[in-house]
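Example (one chain per record):
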Amino acid sequence: MLHIFCPHCGELRSEEEFHASGQAHIPRPLDPNACTDEQWGDYMFFRDNPRGLHHELWIHAAGCRQYFNATRDTLTYEILETYKIGTRPQFTASAGDTKAAAPALGEKV
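Predicted structure:
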């Protein structure tokens, strides 16, 4: 079982309280009416499915009910960090080699 740190509550809680809500950092088109059907379909339905580090949107459904972002390794399921929406992630795909330098906020028990 994972323990996930909620950046809003400031607590490490059981994964059962959280739900993943898809890929993070997807900007909404500024003028949806100006989008073609293909552009709108790309925005609505196409997401990255990387092997390795992935930024995801999560919600603390059984707690504060706030959304936040998490950086998760899709190979190990390890959550490397959680952070509030609007802030930048500490870990990126190019910095994947440095993940051992910082403590992980998600751990298997």
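Caption: The chain has one domain: 2-108.
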